Amino acid sequence: MDNSREILEQGLAEMQIPVSELQVDLLLAFVQLIEKWNKTYNLTAIRHREDMLRLHILDSLVLVPFVAGSKVADIGTGAGLPGIPLAILLPNQQFTLVDSNSKKTRFVQQAILELKLQNVEVKHSRVEELGQAGVYDVVMSRAFASLSDIMQLTQYLLQAEGVLVSMKGHTPKEELDALGRQYQVDEIRVPGVDAERCVVQINKKI
Question: Which CATH superfamily is domain 4-203 in?
Answer without folding.
Answer: Vaccinia Virus protein VP39 (3.40.50.150)
